[in-house]
Amino acid sequence: MVYPSTKKVAIHLVLIVGSLVMVAPFLWMLFTSFKSFAESMQVPPTILPKVWRLDNYVEVFEKVNFLTYYLNTISVTVGRTVGQLILCSLAAFAFARMSFPGKNVIFIALLSVLMVPSQVVMIPSFVIVRELGWFDTLYALIVPGIFSAFGTFLLRQFFMSIPRELDEAAKIDGCSYFGIYWRVVLPLSKPALVALAIFTILNAWNDFLWPLVVTSSDSMRVLSIGIASFQGEYATEYPLLMAGALMASLPLILIFIFLQRYFIEGITMTGMKG
Questions:
Q1: What are the transmembrane regions (predicted)?
Q2: What domains can you pick out in the chain, each with its CATH number?
């Protein structure tokens, strides 16, 4: 019988402890979502609920327009993700595969945007949205987020790892630049596109400050704001808060589980060539 080495045992113990630390908050959220309000405030706290209350999940939909929040969040997430995949991939293709005057200067200027905190440009962005008449509409929630300097950089790095000989072969076959982009580069960039999609989905789904600024009516609220409404001035309805947070988190967890292979591959491959 071959016994594992001490080093492997130690590594696995560290990984197990780390996994438990990461999973513990999620389990606490899950168990609290089935408790009564009195039990959630009990001192010392209990881990498992004495009576499992499924009514908490029904009450979430009764107390707030949770379904409306969900549909708004899905619309914003899909709009931003599709927009970034299209615009960022087009810009990245231009920076990675085309030659034009000032390309490096423009790319450096684009990267400098990453050093500017989003809060700095929030007021100018709000003024533009208001002047366009988009306040309290889906346009205000989606359009400002359909382009990303980070997404352009991520895809540009991946596109540069694709052999340029493929471009020459496509040109011989009569492909234009757009044909090379659509028929050659994009099909080979699936991992990077999935990685960008996951980043965009996470940011759009969890966005709180921008939707809070550009919306005022309850019908335009998103999940992050709707869930925060369970936190009152004098008391917080923790079971309802946790039930709403759990239902809001499940789509992201499922997306990452099914797409994690492409996500890891895309992040790894983007650093192969500068």
A1: 9-31, 69-93, 105-126, 138-159, 180-202, 238-259
A2: 54-269 (1.10.3720.10)
